[in-house]
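[worker-b] picked up task from shared queue
[worker-b] task type: protein-ligand structure
[worker-b] ligand name resolved to zinc ion; SMILES cross-checked against name lookup, match
[worker-b] sequence length check passed
[worker-b] input payload:
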Amino acid sequence: MSGAVVRAGWVDRLADRLREGRLVRIFSVFCGSRWRATILIVCAAVLSACNVGEYKFTEVEGRGGWRAEKERACMDSRAPSATVAEIGSITEEGTCGMDSALQVTALSNGTVVIGPTAKMGCPLAATLESWIAASVQPAAQAKFGSRVVEIKQISAYACRNRNNFGKELSEHAFGNALDISGFKLANGRSISVQGGWKGDAQEQAFMRQVFAGACSRFTTVLAPGSNIMHYNHIHVDLAKLAPDGSPKMCKPSIAGTPATATAVAPEPVPTAADAAVPPTVLPSGVAVPGAD
Ligand SMILES: [Zn+2]
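[worker-b] inference finished, payload out:
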């Protein structure tokens, strides 16, 4: 088996079938006819698009003092940035929110746009910056000879439960998670998580490198192959670890990186004075934010 192959099992196979348009045929078996299956699928899609269940909490959990402590320590040490605005506390239904929310237009001295602009907590923003510097930019330079100028996201702060219908609040509900759907390079190339995860050798190598780097910094990382909800994005969060430091979730398990991926000549390293690049518009109708 190629080292590039992710061992996703039945989850990946089902996702592939959905993408290939076999959904109606599959559901027809259970519904008795194709038109019944079609109606069922359309209703499910409409409910999903409307984010039904987003605010229907079935369980109230405390925000936890550890979140406030981490936020405070991070805010005390962060340097002001023209592309990261402090917007104060957010309090919503249940225990959603943050004591000190940030509105992030770009990170890394304004050189890496977060598109669209995202609300998140200070610890998440700080960890994203360290991940960008240590993993994302080196991987982009090595695999594409260009730096990342934009990280595309499909869900940042959102007051909701896990998977929208789950019982526990998502880390998104505390500004402690980001769903990353793609990367844009300085040379104009865009790599989506959905396409690049099983893309050409360079794209796969880039995705595996940024994924591995994320797993060493965030406490939860879920990429394509981890479950059917993550076919088009990488979820990263800073959920609290157990007292013994576990578990740390990093899925899927990866056999290795493509041996055929070759390095290309890097472009000059940018300076802090580089201006932020305007965000691009995400393709509509493909994003499935809301998992975890
Ligand atoms: Zn997520």
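[worker-b] attaching auto-annotations
[worker-b] The helical segments are 10-19, 23-31, 34-49, 65-77, 122-144, 193-196, 201-215.
[worker-b] releasing lock
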